[in-house]
Description:
- By secondary structure, this protein is an alpha+beta fold.
- The protein has one domain (4-279).
- It has helices at residues 17-28, 32-41, 44-55, 65-77, 111-116, 119-135, 138-156, 164-167, 169-192, 195-205, 215-230, 238-245, 253-266, 268-277, 285-293; strands at residues 4-5, 57-58, 85-89, 97-100, 106-110, 283-284.
- The strands form 2 sheets. Strands 2-3-5-4 form a 4-stranded mixed sheet, with helices on both faces. It has a two-stranded antiparallel sheet with strand order 1-6.
- It is globular, with a radius of gyration of 19 Å.
Amino acid sequence: MDRKILTGLSAVTYEHPFDRTALASLEKMPGVSLLLRKINEYGIDRLLRLQCLGSDIKVTPRNFPKLYDTFGETCQIIDVNPLPELYVFRGNGFIQSYTIGVEKPMVSINLEGMEWLDRDELIYLLAHELAHIKSQHLVYHQIAIVMPSLKQIINSTTLGLGGLAASGVELAFWNWLMMAKFTSDRAGLLACQDINVATTALMKIAGLPGEYLTDATIEDFLAQVKEFTDNNLDNLDKFTKMLSFMESRQSWAVMRAAELLKWVDSGDYSKLIEEDVHSESSTSVEDWDFLQSL
């Protein structure tokens, strides 16, 4: 597939408005600055990096050449430089990935993600993770990883953070985390540049193995997306939505597909791609490979 390299792509150009609004609300809440300061004091960034280095397998051109090459292509397409480190970790029955490292980003994907997704779908998922780096929100994403343990520490000490849940900070945080997925999904589409690929990737993220991916299952999935869109999430109580978003096992793939399709239908996705295509700095992946060989 002839994909365009989106040179100079800024996260601002594809940021979902729900993401922007939710983050602004979160940052204004009392206690957030103290929470971030404590995260820094505890050296969470270094700890998570050590956990990854000590548990996951680093991807190199020699041990996983196809995955490494796909990752490099994804970084080229959405303009992520320098190349972050990439790792794989043990399978757990569903596709999972994460990104850590405020100072030195690291992307990690599990074996299901590597094995269940084809190259195009991998580009979608990897770009989704790389979007966290482009948006420079990794400190908040790392809070999600340590939140369960952090709450235990908060409850047993007098750090002045004991009222996080009561004050709504925790709920606001989980709300923003879900809204940020909408932005990352847009980056995934900008990288794979095919809404059908993004759709099948989300179906697999929802738990559907590739052998069950047929025209019928895709059509039914899209019908379910429409049904979900008709039953607007805003109809639910705000507190109920927040509790739902806190359930990490839920992929919310249907909701994410619905938001992605809205973006495509609005014409904003095509406009962004076409603007880059007609810019002087735009080049294809094939052109990039040729230039690199000179």
